[in-house]
């Protein structure tokens, strides 16, 4: 795969460079130069294939020039080692459950696959690769978990003190070994600022090999294309007509992966970007003018994004044409009250427990049914397990949510993190002096 920066289509780089660098220096985002069209036979066989089988075929067509087939198979087997079942909750309404990974959120797909790809690309290097990641919760836990005990790689997770949930802190700061958790006296934005400063600091970069693990990294999007194919594959054959996907969206990594799947030939009729009140994308789709906003806090907090980083990729995929994008994508936003009501309604009517993010996806699908009179079946993505948000969900359904085994294990462990002032000089000194980062 060859890639270019959205800011400079002329200079091509390899997948290895894009994965290890994360983001081009010109502030654009890396995009694949071309998308493989999967062969007709693949689509004929799709309905009977498992998630690892599908992942291997797509992985091969995307990464085949850069990674040997045996390695791709090994990566798929160790990274995509949990299911993503499609569950029917009502007539022609399906939920694709993406929360069966170790940290109970869909970010496990991207983080786990990225860790194996990075490990492969640095296997002959004599230096450690150090991944810095700022988190408001879910990204940090998925990345920490995905890279735990991956040889040659350290992860430094910066999270804002007192601003991640107890469960999330357990998932980030109880692993130890190559996972270093830093509790920053400040906000998420402060953490992000510290990471950015480190990534461009000359002294640190001279001495250490650094990269980031946010969804700006193309290697997180690649595995996310797999489950769109798998979700489609699981639909009963008579319902594989005018298939629509509702994607609860924040930084738009998930949605970008869906649009990439379509570009590779998956016959999806429409997507909807379902957001909470942080509605810059629905506003753009309505007016054709993009305006970022300051984000506001909601109960679907992983989608509290005012300037979504993957928007540039989506525009690039559609040649910066608003009408063309509107042909494939709709948008809608929902407030916390509507989200809570959706959780209650789906539980009362269908006995299915949604988390706040999936609830926004469910509302998006219903909106799409209403807007498009000719579509009455579809899939919405459930991006996190409801047990990650017990306060919000239990209040609506009046019953307690059983805690999955993987979560229970981390709840019993002791948090061990380094407390740090929000000061770049302190982080810099730490990165330069600790020999683990050599
Ligand atoms: C990160 C996240 C989202 C948003 O996904 P994007 O790819 O950033 O749009 C939605 N739901 C959950 C649970 C998340 O953790």
Provide a short characterization of the protein structure.
The chain has 438 residues and is an alpha/beta fold. Helices cover 45% and strands 18% of the residues.
Describe this structure in words.
The chain is of the alpha/beta class and 438 residues long. It has a domain at 80-105 and 220-397: Rossmann fold, CATH 3.40.50.1100. Helices cover 45% and strands 18% of the residues. α4 (69-79) runs antiparallel to α5, α6 runs parallel beside α7 and α10 (218-234) packs across α11. The two termini are 30 Å apart. The relative contact order is 0.14. The mean pLDDT is 94. The protein binds pyridoxal-5'-phosphate.
